[in-house]
Structure formats: structure tokens, C-alpha cells
Amino acid sequence: MAKDINWGELPFGYYKTDYNVRCYYRDGKWGELEISSSEYIPVHMAATTLHYGQEAFEGLKAYRGKDGKVRLFRWEENAKRLRNSAHGILMKEVPDELFYNAIVKAVKLNAEYIPPYGTGATLYIRPLLIGSGPQVGVKPANEYLFMVFVTPVGPYFKTGFKPVDVELVRDVDRAAPLGTGHIKVGGNYAAGLRATERAHQRGFASVLFLDAREKKYIDEAGPANFFGIKNNTYITPKSTSILPSITNMSLEQIAKDLGLTVERRKVPVEELETFEETGACGTAAIITPIRKIVDNDMGKEYFYGDEAGEVSTKLYHNLRGIQEGTIEDKHNWTTVIEGI
Ligand SMILES: Cc1ncc(COP(=O)(O)O)c(C=O)c1O
User: Fold this and answer.
1) Average pLDDT value for residue range 260-285
2) 180 ligand 1 Cβ < 6 A
3) Whether residue 17 is found in the same domain as residue 136
4) Does the pLDDT value for residue 160 go beyond 90?
5) What is the pLDDT of residue 156?
6) Are residues 6 and 30 both part of a single domain?
7) 3-state SS track over 170-235
8) What is the total count of domains within the chain?
């Protein structure tokens, strides 16, 4: 029950809400949006999602602003990325209108779970697309399920806006250069789990993956993109195997607006030595500053500081300000959900 939630203590985890929405693609077309109060979905035992990984998802948030309004942040980009993910693994694409109607409906139906402004918590929105039709041969399904559930969450990294330690990974690849790293499909996360859990056990908040081909360049952090700051420049990796983060894309623009130079290019591991600040960014991570990066195999440690750097702090406040309606949204990134 929403009234029992201690908003300030919420972890980034699953919390049951009252409703979710679902829509099936059958006989060559998308059907009507259905409302469900069940947390379970009936799945055919031969569904392609279970056997061949036909599955993609998204993650965005609804933010309660200081003015009481509820805003979505760049939902069109999530819709586009889900279409790209569907295209990448031959699933039926979800039209933007269906995507928008489904997320708005899921948020409105669970409005009491939208955390109040100032608590640091938000309502996380999880759209999911799966191949629900049966196949035994390796083929795309003929039926798909698109659904959206929401859950109130606190910060992804327990420390919130406090620097965390990150472990550089050399013995596991998250995604191949021409594989599925650039789309948001479950297989990428399965591939990274072993390294991520090991890092947690060793006391790190996250991992940092390298490019799979040469092991020379930074790819991205577990659930987030990577950036480094030096000489008034925002630098972030260019790679075919990283997920194009909407947060990162937005931070590049905010950095420009703040007068920084922005570079998206290959970032060699040795360059870690030269950064004044580094961070992980994403919807869940927002900006999580990095305290140190440990490269165990090479016996190296890169230290950035116990406190968040000046530039990361500025970027963080600007991004959150736009999302919460306290800073002018001059790029038209937010959409107010009326009536809640
Ligand atoms: C692998 C990966 N990289 C980066 C991101 C950050 O992307 P975004 O800023 O769009 O949430 C995410 C989270 O969605 C992710 O799972």
C-alpha cells in the first residue's frame, strides 16, 4: 500500500503497485490496451522469449515536480529505442502512440505510488516487449506482448549522489562489437551478470566494461554510460556496443549549455589517469560520481576523490532541475501528465 511507503528509504527494487497494462500483437496487428491487476503473465512454454531471447525492455521515470506536476523525461527517445531494439531482434515494433498511451495509463492508474517531490524517490516505468508466440525452430514469434508496469524506486546506487568504487572488467564481455550491445535486450544483461555480481561481492558498486575486440577502450558501466571530465570538456565513449543512453545524450547538451566542450570518441583505458572527474550516468544512476576505478589485472587504481566534482555536481543539479520542473526546460524534454 502506497500509504505505508517510507519514501526516503526506498531501494531501487521492485515494489508491488496496483495495476499494469498489456497489449498483444496477434494476427498481424496490435490489439487494445488491457488493464491488469495481476503481477503474473501467462506465457506459452515454447514462447520465443524463453528460448531464443526475443525480449527487450525500457526504463524511464515519472518525476513529481516542485510545482506538483508529474513529468516524463524524453519518453519519445525511449519509444524510439524500443523500436530499435525490436528491429534488432526481429520483434514487432511498438508504435509510439501505443507506447505513450501505455506508460501514461500505467502511471495514472498507480498515481498514489508517485513519490512526493524532495524525497529522492521517483516512479520507475518499465515497458517490456516479448515474443509470446510459440516456435521450436529458431525463428521470430508470430505473437508479441507489450506491457508496462511501474514501481516506486529510490536511488540505484545506495549512496545516492556520493562517489562509488568501480571495478574494471577484463575477463567478461558484455556485448560484441557487432552484437546487441546498442539495443536494450535481456541477453546483454545476462552476459554481464557474472562480472557484476563478482564486483558487488568485492565491495564495488559497479563494473566498467571494455571494448570486446581490443580491450583498449572504455565501453560503459554495468547499467549506465561512462563520462570523464577534464579541461572543461565532457568526454564520453563512442562505441558500437554500448547502449545509447538518453541521460548521456541529455548531459552532452547540458554540458554544452554550460559552456563545456563535448567529445564523443574512443576513450583509451590510459586516459583514465588524466580525468579530473568521472561518473556513470543513466535513468536509474542519474549521475553517480566515481571515487575510484580499480583495474585488478593490471594492478592499477585511478582515484578521483571522496566527494563529487564541481562539474558533475553542476550537471547533476541541472538535469534533476529540468526533470523536476525547477529549471527551465529549454529543449522541450519533459511532458507533463495532466490530471494527476
Ligand atoms: C547498459 C545500459 N547502459 C546505459 C543505460 C542508461 O541509459 P538511459 O540514460 O537511457 O537510462 C542503461 C539504462 O537504461 C543501461 O542498461
Assistant:
1) 98
2) no
3) yes
4) no
5) 82
6) yes
7) CCCCCCCCCCCCCCCEHHHHHHHHHHHHHHHHCCCCEEEEECCCCCCEEEEECCEEEEEEECCEEE
8) 2
Q: Is 252 in the pocket of ligand 1 (CB under 6 A)?
A: no
Cβ atoms 25, 146 nearer than 8 A: yes
Rounded to the nearest angstrom, the distance between the alpha carbon of 136 and the centre of ligand 1 is: 32
Q: Could you please report the per-residue DSSP string of 99-115?
A: HHHHHHHHHHHTGGGSP
Q: What spacing in Å lies between the alpha carbon of 309 and ligand 1's midpoint? A: 22
Span from the CA of 97 to the centroid of ligand 1 (angstroms): 22
pLDDT of residue 39: 98
* Ligand 1 contact via 283 beta carbon (within 6 Å): yes
Instruction: Give yes or no for residue 131 CB within 6 A of ligand 1.
Output: no
Query: Distance, CA 137 to ligand 1 centroid (Å)?
Result: 32
- Give pTM, 2 decimals: 0.97
Query: In 10 A of CB 39, how many CB atoms?
Result: 10
Q: What is the CATH number of the domain that holds 274?
A: 3.20.10.10
Select from 153, 188, 213 the last residue of a domain. Answer: 153
157 pLDDT tier (thresholds 50, 70, 90): confident
- The full length of the chain comes to 340
Residues 145 and 275 in one domain: no
Q: How do residues 60-104 score in pLDDT, each as one tens digit? A: 999 999 999 999 999 999 999 999 999 999 999 999 999 999 999
> 151 has which bridge partners?
124
Query: Cα(85)–Cα(190) distance, rounded to whole angstroms?
Result: 16
Q: What is the dihedral of CA 61, 65, 69, 75, to 10 degrees?
A: -30
Cell of 12: 531501487
Task: For residue 85, report the distance from its CA to the centre of ligand 1, in Å.
Answer: 13
Return the residue matching grid coordinates 563545456: 260
Residue nearest to atom 16 of ligand 1 (CA): 223
* Positive or negative torsion for Cα 295, 298, 302, 306: positive
Q: Are 91 and 140 in contact (CB under 8 A)?
A: yes
Residue 292's beta-bridge partner residues?
A: 165, 303
Q: Which residues form the domain of 16? A: 2-153
Q: Is 314 a domain residue?
A: yes
